[in-house]
DNA sequence: CTTGCAACCGTACCATGGTACGGCCCCTAG
DNA sequence: CTAGGGGCCGTACCATGGTACGGTTGCAAG
């Protein structure tokens, strides 16, 4: 029987590639996040005599992983995300709000910049469309 | 007399640091753009016997530099910007429009993503503000 | 003409966020 | 029992967009 990626018959939890699949990332990315301290490295089973077993991951890990991806989409760096994850278990609501609001401000600024850029691009496309000959004045599209 | 940065009495053009100042970037960044082919390296004066003079830059260079910064703000990579600059002198309006419109699409998608993220952050800040005790459920802010 | 700042040049290094490689170990199907 | 695919690990490498360093000229004021 061909085992599907990371799917084990036993409900013992996901392997690393199962976790990766669940989060839509590569195995190496998981390991990278572990090195960065964003994801835990579960204990390897049976002893530790220079050869443990295979680590298993659960729903909690999947949630953390998904959170990481979402927070990244919100523009947080991995360092900031590490802080958020640490905060999640703790009591420092003040700090959490601070991070959130700083990021909201940055996002607003970024959206504004993108809208400016969008306008400039529309002008550029327009200028290139409106005349038929001669060079297209791309350089001036972003003037003003 | 103390020469101001890059300002020469003669109207012979800007030095590299004058150009950098005009574009709001560092000298090393100018040199980097030159290596990347985004800015020209003007001929050095008197001969070339293993020791030219000092390069001079003009208004055209300043415009290109400002364009580069604006285009970067619009999310173009330096590679794409190089293409735009090449296009500017040429006739390929089709290609120019194509680049512009592709970028506009990407910008729209990015804005949408940022707005989603902004919402999530607002929820997170709200959740952290609305209760006084227990851990703040940051992980769930990005759910859904 | 000395002194000293700038320009010039090649090359090395940085941060970010991964991605790849090679060697070894474990585990299970066939 | 053996082969093969994954897991595990350290370490190297990649792209992007710069930033820094060290040594050599240029050049202009004092």
TrEMBL record, chains A, B:
<protein>
    <submittedName>
        <fullName>Transcriptional regulator, MerR family</fullName>
    </submittedName>
</protein>
<feature type="domain" description="HTH merR-type">
    <location>
        <begin position="13"/>
        <end position="87"/>
    </location>
</feature>
<keyword id="KW-0238">DNA-binding</keyword>
<keyword id="KW-0804">Transcription</keyword>
<dbReference type="Pfam" id="PF09278">
    <property type="entry name" value="MerR-DNA-bind"/>
</dbReference>
<dbReference type="InterPro" id="IPR000551">
    <property type="entry name" value="MerR-type_HTH_dom"/>
</dbReference>
<keyword id="KW-0805">Transcription regulation</keyword>
<dbReference type="InterPro" id="IPR015358">
    <property type="entry name" value="Tscrpt_reg_MerR_DNA-bd"/>
</dbReference>
<dbReference type="GO" id="GO:0003677">
    <property type="term" value="F:DNA binding"/>
</dbReference>
<keyword id="KW-0175">Coiled coil</keyword>
<feature type="coiled-coil region">
    <location>
        <begin position="97"/>
        <end position="124"/>
    </location>
</feature>
<keyword id="KW-0678">Repressor</keyword>
<dbReference type="InterPro" id="IPR047057">
    <property type="entry name" value="MerR_fam"/>
</dbReference>
<dbReference type="InterPro" id="IPR009061">
    <property type="entry name" value="DNA-bd_dom_put_sf"/>
</dbReference>
<dbReference type="GO" id="GO:0003700">
    <property type="term" value="F:DNA-binding transcription factor activity"/>
</dbReference>
């Amino acid at each position: 029987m061909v085992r599907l990626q990371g799917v084990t018959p036993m409900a013992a939890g996901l392997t690393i590639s199962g976790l990766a699949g669940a989060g839509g990332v590569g195995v190496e990315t998981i390991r990278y996040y572990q090195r960065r301290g964003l994801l835990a490295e579960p204990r390897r089973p049976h002893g530790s005599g220079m050869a443990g077993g295979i680590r298993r991951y659960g729903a909690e890990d999947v949630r953390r992983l998904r959170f990481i991806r979402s927070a990244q989409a919100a523009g947080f760096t991995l360092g900031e995300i590490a802080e958020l994850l640490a905060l999640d278990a703790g009591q420092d609501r003040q700090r959490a709000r601070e991070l959130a609001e700083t990021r909201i401000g940055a996002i607003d600024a970024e959206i504004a910049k993108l809208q400016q850029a969008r306008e400039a691009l529309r002008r550029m496309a327009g200028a290139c469309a409106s005349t038929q000959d001669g060079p297209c004045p791309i350089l001036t599209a972003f003037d003003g």
